[in-house]
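Good morning,

Attaching, inline, the C-alpha cells for the sequence recovery test we're adding to the shared suite. The designed sequence is right after.
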C-alpha cells in the first residue's frame, strides 16, 4: 500500500473498534458505496460480506431510504423528545408494535444497541423495585453471549472468553450458566436446560431477568442453538416470576430467516431489544420494547417515570429512515432472498470442510460461519480478503459473513470463493 498521509493520520490519532492508536493495523479508505459494493480509494470495488456489521440489509445508497432522509431534512433534522414528539417517532413505534411478537406495546427509542440493552436492564430492575422486590436486581444469562460495550451490557457478556474479560472484577456480578450445546436442528434440550432451571430455582429471589440472544449468539461466537431451549427458558421465567429479555439487535429484521428469531420458538419476551438493521444501516438507532404490564407498573409507582432519556432520543432523521427501511423490507421478497443466501452460502462454503484448518461450518438464514481451529492473524487475513475483492471482517477463529439481502447469486459465489481461497492460504 502506497504512503497515504490521511491514513497515517487516521492510524496515529483515531481509535477504530477494538483497536490501538499507532498499532499500524491496516485500514482501508472508502470513497463510495452502492448496492453490495464498497469502493476503496484508488477505485477498487469490494463485495461487502458484512453489511457494515449486519445493518445495511438493503444495500448502500438506496433511493427509497435516501428520499426518506431528504424529506425529513426538509422539515427538521432534530428536536428534543422531552415534552415534544413528531410523526416519524409515532409511525415507527406503531409499525414496531405491529411486527414484533405480542404483547409488546411500549417503545423506548435508544441511541444504539448497547444503550437499548442498558435501558432493558434498567426497566427490569425498576419494574421489580416498583413491585416491592428490591433484592431482584441480578441477571441470569448464558455464556458465549454478547450484549454490547457499555458497563451494564458488558456485565452480561461472557465473563471469561468474551471481549470484556478485562473488566471482570469491576463489572456488576451476574449469574452465568453454560451456553446450550443442542444445535439448531436438535429437539432434546433436557441436559442444557437443567442449569437454567437450577439457577432460577435457587436464585429467583435475586434475579429480575434472564437476558439472552435468541437462537443466534452473535459476536460471542456466532453459535446457533435449539429453539426448544428458548421455549423452555420462556416457561421457566414464567414459573419463577422472572422477566425474559430478548436481545435481537443482531437477529432482528429477518437476518436469521424469520423476522425475529423468537419466532422460531413461538415465544414472546417481556422486553425486546432491536437495533443494527433497524435503520437499514443509515443511522444509529435502537429500540427497547416492553409489555404494557411492565410500563404501567413503572408509571404507577415512584418515581412514576422510567429513569432514562438521551439527548438524541427518537431523532427524527433516524426514525424516518427506520420507518422507510421496515416498510421496504416488508414489501420485498426478503424471505426468498434470505433462503437463497442460505442455500448459496451452504454450497459455496462447503468445500471449506475439506481443509485441515477448518473446525466447523454453520449457516442459518443470511449468516455463514466458518470456524477455524486456530485464531486468525487479522493483519494478514484482512489484506488477503481485500486482495480477492471482498470485505469480510473475521475475529478470533471465525471467518463469517452476513451480507445485504439484495446480494445476487453470482456475488455470493464470488464472496464464498474468495473466503475459500484465503482460508486455504492461511
Amino acid at each position: 500500500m502506497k504512503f497515504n498521509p490521511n491514513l497515517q493520520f487516521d492510524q496515529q490519532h483515531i481509535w477504530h473498534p477494538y483497536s490501538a492508536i499507532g498499532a499500524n493495523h491496516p485500514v482501508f479508505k472508502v470513497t463510495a458505496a452502492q448496492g453490495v459494493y464498497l469502493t476503496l480509494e484508488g477505485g477498487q470495488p469490494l463485495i461487502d460480506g458484512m453489511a457494515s456489521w449486519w445493518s445495511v440489509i438493503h444495500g448502500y445508497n438506496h433511493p427509497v431510504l435516501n428520499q426518506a432522509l431528504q424529506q425529513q431534512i426538509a422539515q427538521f433534522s432534530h428536536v428534543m423528545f422531552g415534552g415534544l414528539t413528531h410523526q416519524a417517532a409515532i409511525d415507527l413505534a406503531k409499525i414496531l408494535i405491529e411486527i414484533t411478537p405480542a404483547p409488546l406495546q411500549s417503545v423506548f427509542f435508544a441511541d444504539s444497541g448497547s444503550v437499548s440493552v442498558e435501558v432493558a436492564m434498567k426497566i427490569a430492575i425498576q419494574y421489580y423495585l416498583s413491585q416491592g422486590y428490591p433484592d431482584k436486581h441480578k441477571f441470569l444469562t448464558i455464556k458465549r453471549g454478547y450484549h454490547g460495550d457499555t458497563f451494564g451490557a458488558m456485565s452480561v457478556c461472557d465473563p471469561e472468553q468474551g471481549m470484556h474479560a478485562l473488566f471482570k472484577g469491576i463489572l456488576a456480578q451476574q449469574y452465568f450458566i453454560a451456553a446450550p450445546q443442542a444445535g439448531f436442528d436438535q429437539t432434546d434440550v433436557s441436559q442444557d436446560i437443567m442449569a437454567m432451571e437450577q439457577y432460577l430455582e435457587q436464585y429467583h429471589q435475586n434475579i429480575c431477568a434472564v437476558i439472552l440472544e435468541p437462537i443466534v449468539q452473535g459476536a460471542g461466537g456466532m453459535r446457533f442453538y435449539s429453539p426448544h431451549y428458548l421455549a423452555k427458558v420462556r416457561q421457566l421465567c414464567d414459573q419463577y416470576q422472572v422477566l425474559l429479555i430478548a436481545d435481537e439487535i443482531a437477529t432482528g429484521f429477518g437476518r436469521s430467516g424469520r423476522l425475529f428469531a423468537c419466532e422460531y420458538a413461538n415465544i414472546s419476551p417481556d422486553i425486546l431489544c432491536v437495533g443494527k438493521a433497524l435503520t437499514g444501516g443509515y443511522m444509529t438507532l435502537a429500540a427497547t420494547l416492553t409489555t404494557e404490564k411492565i410500563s404501567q407498573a413503572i408509571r404507577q409507582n415512584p418515581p412514576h417515570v422510567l429513569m432514562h432519556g438521551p439527548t438524541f432520543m427518537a431523532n427524527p432523521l433516524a426514525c424516518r429512515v427506520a420507518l422507510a427501511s421496515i416498510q421496504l423490507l416488508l414489501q420485498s421478497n426478503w424471505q426468498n432472498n434470505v433462503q437463497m443466501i442460505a442455500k448459496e452460502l451452504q454450497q459455496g462454503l462447503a468445500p471449506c470442510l475439506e481443509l485441515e484448518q477448518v473446525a466447523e461450518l454453520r449457516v442459518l438464514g443470511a449468516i455463514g460461519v466458518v470456524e477455524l481451529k486456530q485464531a486468525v492473524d487479522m493483519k494478514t487475513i484482512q489484506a488477503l480478503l481485500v486482495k480477492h475483492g471482498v470485505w469480510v471482517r473475521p475475529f478470533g477463529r471465525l471467518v463469517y459473513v452476513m451480507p445485504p439481502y439484495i446480494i445476487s447469486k453470482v456475488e455470493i459465489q464470488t464472496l464464498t470463493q474468495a473466503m475459500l481461497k484465503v482460508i486455504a492460504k492461511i
